[in-house]
Each structure stands twice: as structure tokens, then as C-alpha cells.
Amino acid sequence: GQQVMQIPQYQHVQEGEDFTTYCNSSTTLSNIQWYKQRPGGHPVFLIQLVKSGEVKKQKRLTFQFGEAKKNSSLHITATQTTDVGTYFCAGNYGGATNKLIFGTGTLLAVQP
Amino acid sequence: EPEVTQTPSHQVTQMGQEVILRCVPISNHLYFYWYRQILGQKVEFLVSFYNNEISEKSEIFDDQFSVERPDGSNFTLKIRSTKLEDSAMYFCASLGFLGQGAGTSGRYPRNEQFFGPGTRLTVL
């Protein structure tokens, strides 16, 4: 079946350090979305990547979609304490429903 | 800004009891979803709903589960006979428009799902 894996499971950084999480799908994706979930909160949409090799930036966040549309990454430059949370990639394999297959998530802890 | 709402925020029930989790999606949205998240784990797709019927469901969504949109605004998830392993956070999500291809502008539509705050279900 369709599976989405993420590494690392957990990352602890000092404020100001960079952070990267990697996402890998077992099969080719139609598109990939990234969500952030604060502790005790709900997933909040960050971005959608559709095209092979696509790179998008949101301030200190850089998102990449692999050439084969099977992997993706999120890189945060100079982390801040407000970046704390779990970052999930969510794969969309096409079809009529847009169901999301969430990755296992990376919990980011930022020490001031 | 419009948002998805869910009630109750926390539901405690005894094993074998029926529960109904309620969601009010964003008013002009057309696609509705239920996901669940067992504590500390990933978010799992349960079911999608469009045009007043289930469009897709996962293996988790067995005969004990059902969904309804009874009045054009609420979207409910019913679990007929709860089990201990049903304890989880249940998220409702809605999507306004589903686009698959780039439009004449060359831009792909943003298929953002808006998630509600969740209902924490505890089965004792």
C-alpha cells in the first residue's frame, strides 16, 4: 500500500541552528503537502508541491519535491522557538478524493 | 477567517457505547474528511465524503464507523460500539475545491485541507 516515511523521528536543536526533515513515499506522488502540528494542536497546512523538482520558500522554510516525485524535504534556516512542533508531510496519490497519507512526522524541539 | 469547528473537544465513553463526533466544516466547502491520530503517532485517513456520499474509506473505517451530513452544515462520525483501541484524537477536515491540473494561468490549485481542532476520544 501507499506509505510515507519521515526521518528523523525527533530532532533537538539549539535556537539558530538549521533543521531538515526528509519524507519518502513508497510510490510516485501526485503532489505532496506539508503540515505543522503544534503540541496539543491540529495540523495546519504549510505548502503544496506539485511539480517534479519543485522548490518553494516561505521565509526561513524551504520545501523541495524530488525529481521522481517520491521524496520531499523541509529545511528550516536559523530555527526559532516558535518553530517547535511536529512537521508532517502528507502524500496525495491523485484520484478523486484528495485523501492525504501522512508521514510519520518529525518532532522538532528548539532550545533557547 | 472561516474555520472548521468540532464538538465535543473531549469525549469519555465506556467500551461498547456509541459515540457521535460532530464537525461543522467551512460553509462553502465541498469535500469532507475524518482522520484520527493515536497519541504520539501519525495522522491516519479514515474516510472522505463528497456529494452526500462516501467517496473513499480506509481499512480502519469498518462497519462500526459511519458518517453523515444530516443537515447541510454538520458532518458527523459515529462509532457504534467503541473499543479501547478507538481512543484517539479525531480530526475533521474540509476542502473547498479539488483541482488536479494547472489552469489556464499555469498554476495548480491549492488543495489545502482545513483541519478542525479535534475531538479527543477516550474509551474506558
Mean pLDDT of chain A: 94
Whole-number mean pLDDT of chain B? 90
Assembly status: heterodimer
Instruction: Please state the overall shape of chain B, judged from the principal axes of the Cα atoms.
Output: globular
Alpha plus pi helix count of chain A = 0
Structural class of chain A: mainly beta
Helical residues, percent of chain B: under 10%
Note the run of SSEs of chain A as H and E. EEEEEEEEEEE
Strand content of chain A: over 45%
The succession of helices and strands of chain B, N to C, reads EEEEEEEEEEE
Essential attributes:
heterodimer; A: 112 residues; mainly beta; 5-stranded antiparallel β-sheet; globular; B: mainly beta; 46% strand
Give the SSE layout.
The complex is a heterodimer of chains A (112) and B (124).
Chain A: E1 4-7, E2 10-14, E3 19-25, E4 31-37, E5 44-49, E6 55-58, E7 61-65, E8 71-76, E9 85-92, E10 101-102, E11 106-111
Parallel strand pairs in A: 2-11
Antiparallel strand pairs in A: 1-3, 3-8, 4-5, 4-9, 6-7, 7-8, 9-10, 9-11
Chain B: E1 5-7, E2 10-13, E3 19-24, E4 31-37, E5 43-50, E6 53-57, E7 65-68, E8 75-79, E9 88-95, E10 114-115, E11 119-123
Parallel strand pairs in B: 2-11
Antiparallel strand pairs in B: 1-3, 3-8, 4-5, 4-9, 5-6, 7-8, 9-10, 9-11
Structure description:
The complex is a heterodimer of chains A (112) and B (124). Chain A is built from no helices and 11 strands. With 112 residues, chain A is mainly beta. In chain A, strand 6 (55-58) and strand 7 form a beta hairpin. The radius of gyration of chain A is 13 Å and the shape is globular. The model of chain A has no long low-confidence stretch (mean pLDDT 94). In chain B, strands 2, 4, 5, 6, 9, 10 and 11 form a 7-stranded mixed beta sheet that branches. In chain B, strands 1-3-8-7 form a 4-stranded antiparallel beta sheet, with no helix packed on it. The mean pLDDT of chain B is 90. Classes of the chains: A mainly beta (112), B mainly beta (124).
